[in-house]
Structures are given as structure tokens and as C-alpha cells.
Amino acid sequence: MPKSNDAPSHVMAQFMPPRTEVIVCTYNGARFVEEQLETIFAQSEPPNLVSIYDDQSSDNTVALVQQMIATRASTEVSTRVHVNRSNLGYAANFSNGIAEARGDLLFLCDQDDRWHVDKIRVSLNLLQTSGADMVFSDGLLIDAEGRALVAGSVLSSYGLRETEINNFSREPVRYLVRRNYVNGAAMVIRREAAQAALPVPAGMPHDYWLAVCCALHGGVAASTDLLYEYRQHGGNIIGAGLHRWHHQWLGIWRRPQPPRLRELDILAEFVPRIKGIPAATEFEEKLQWLQACVAQKGGLVRLSAILISALRGYYRRFGVPYAFARDLIAILRTPI
User: Fold this and answer.
1) CA atoms within 13 A on the CB side of 137
2) For residue range 105-117, what is the model confidence (pLDDT) as tens digits?
3) What's the whole-number mean pLDDT along residues 199-212?
4) Per residue in 263-309, pLDDT tens?
5) Other Cβ atoms closer than 10 A to 170
6) Residues in Cβ contact with 249 at an 8 Å cutoff, skipping those fewer than 6 apart
7) Rounded CA gap, 244 and 249, in Å?
8) Whether the bond into 321 is cis, omega within 30 of 0
9) What distance in Å separates the CA atoms of residue 282 and residue 317, rounded to the nearest whole number?
10) In sequence order, what are the residues at sequence separation of 6 or more whose Cβ sits closer than 8 angstroms to the Cβ of residue 47?
11) Integer Cα distance of 232 and 253 in angstroms
12) Do 119 and 225 form a contact (C-beta atoms < 8 A)?
């Protein structure tokens, strides 16, 4: 007979640490994937599970991954490799990985970055301290050869200052309504929150959608800790935007409207999914603002909307850097 002080299994489960899982998505990543995986396996607090989802690579990414797993066999870290039957695309591959996730706390991982040795340990502490559904950290920018870039940190390149990072958890919607500050490689998210957010709206970055959903429900916290290295090599699906100022303005003059139309498309896709949530009204207001200043037919009508929006402070409230300049230049380059 069991001893009277033996605890039932459901009680024991309360004291077991949450299982951590790293979801690595790969596609033609042979150049960097081994270095990325090395930094995962070398964590001071190793993950319980590393799941690799390959999106039909045409190079030897899968062979390199399997060879590395075979030589780095560990009793601490379980691994599994899945190759998609067809190419899903970047966001859909991560969505598939999240849908299939087994861990309680999920780390999303690109194929070409590097993690600092304490990334998992520090991220878990931050998540526990904040009580949020998601925590994301800052990171360093490196080039293709792994050398530090002088541009500073990832979040500073996005225009987020230290005081704003520290205040992020208090008003995450206020920040996210302007733009996405959350790099998927920087986050840890509770599985329940991630899976509840699926499916990701078409054409929307998965990390932005996950951040929006967490901001509207269980909360998002940010950290100034530099926990990973975000590699900029020209082949990034989404990079940090480190163009020199004259290149930036030349790009704005040549193509002022496409980035603004992309903003509009993303908002139009996901706002109906969050309609009715009280905290989501700011996203609805931004959608209406973009429709007036970006999509409205008739140059004079749109120009009027742009100027009125500027006077009312909508560009400061909703606009990404250069948004006002883009909208004005688009008007100048379009016959009225």
C-alpha cells in the first residue's frame, strides 16, 4: 500500500517545472544553422525539447541538422526533426511548429542567429517575474561573419529607448499599434497563449500577431537584457533596417507608398479578428486613419486627411518613422 504521505500525481505536477521547447524553423539555412544550434545546446539551462521544422530546403540543411543531433546526443535535450511536405513559407512554418508544440513555454528560433548562453534561464526568470504571457528581450546586431555592427542593439534600431522598454508591459498596445517591436527570436511565450492565437492572419508576421494577441489578453513584457545576436546578412526575411540616412530617403522618394500599403493590408487582415475587445479600439482607429491617408482616392481629399491627421497628432500616435514624409511624397508623385 502507498504511504500516507505520498502525494497524488496531480499535486506532484504542480511542482514540476514547465517544460521548455525551442521551435527552430529552417529553409536553406546550411550556412548558419549549425552555429545557431550550438548556442541552443550550450545553454546554461538547456531546453527540454528542440523541434526543427524544415520548409523543404533545397540545400543540405536537413542533413547538417541530423548529423549534428547525432553527434550532440544528450540525455538532457530531446530533439525531433520534421520536413514539411511542401514549402509553407516563413510565417506558416512557425505557425505549424506552434500548433504541434508540446512544451509549456515556447522559444521561437531563426536559423541564422546566435543565442547567449543564459538566454533561456534569464527569459524564464523574466516571464515568471512579469506574469505575462510573453516576454521579449533586446539583442545585439551582427553581420554575416558574426562581427558586431555599430548600429547598437536590436530594439534601439527599432527606435525603442530604454525607458520605453522598461514601460512596455504597462501599455503594450500603445507601442504595438505603431509597429512591431517583437522579434520572434527574442521571445518566450506560453503555449496556451500561442496556440489560442492561431491561425496567423494571412500576410502578417507571426511574431507581430502573437504579440498583439498577448497584449490584448495576458500581457507582454520587454527586457533590456541582450540575450541573442540578430544576424544581418542580406538574406533576412525581415531585417533590422540598418540603411544609412541618405539610402533611407532615396528609398522613400522612389517608393513612398508600398510600405504604407503593407501596413494597411496587415491591419485590414487582423483587425476583424480582434473587433469587440475593448483594448483593441486603437488598432481599429489606426485602420481608419490609414484608409483615409493612404488608400483614399483623390489626391486633394487624401492631402486634406494627411494634414488634418498631422494636426491632430495621429502621426505621433500611430505612425512609424517617416510615415508623414512617405504620405506627402506619395501625394506629390501622384497627379491630383
Assistant:
1) 25
2) 999 999 999 999 9
3) 95
4) 999 999 999 999 999 999 999 999 999 999 999 888 899 999 999 99
5) 10
6) none
7) 9
8) no
9) 10
10) 20, 21, 22, 40, 77, 103, 107, 120
11) 24
12) no
Helix (H, G, I), strand (E, B) or coil at 265: helix
Q: What is the DSSP letter of 170?
A: G
Tell how far CA 333 is from the center of its chain. 33
The C-alpha cell of 179 is what?
509597429
CA distance 68 to 77: 13
Place of cell 513612398: 256
Distance, C-alpha 2 to centroid of its chain: 49
Q: How far is CA 56 from CA 79, 207, 325, 333, in A?
A: 19, 22, 41, 42
pTM of the full predicted structure? 0.89
| Cβ-count burial 60-93 (b if 16+ within 10 Å, e if not) | ebbebbeebbeeeeeeebebeeeebeeebebbbb
**Treating both helix axes as pointing N-terminal to C-terminal, what angle do 281-290 and 258-274 enclose, rounded to 10 degrees?**
140
Helix (H, G, I), strand (E, B) or coil at 233: coil
- Beta-bridge partner residues of 137: 223
User: What residue type is assigned to position 2 of the chain?
Assistant: P
Helices within the chain (DSSP H only): 9-14, 33-41, 61-71, 90-99, 119-130, 154-157, 162-167, 172-176, 191-196, 206-216, 245-254, 258-274, 281-290, 299-311, 314-318, 323-332
Among the listed residues 256, 134, 269, 150, the one whose alpha carbon sits nearest the alpha carbon of residue 202 = 269
C-alpha to C-alpha distance for 291 and 167, rounded to whole angstroms: 30
**Grid cell listed for 116:** 547567449
Cβ proximity of 326 and 257 under 8 Å: yes
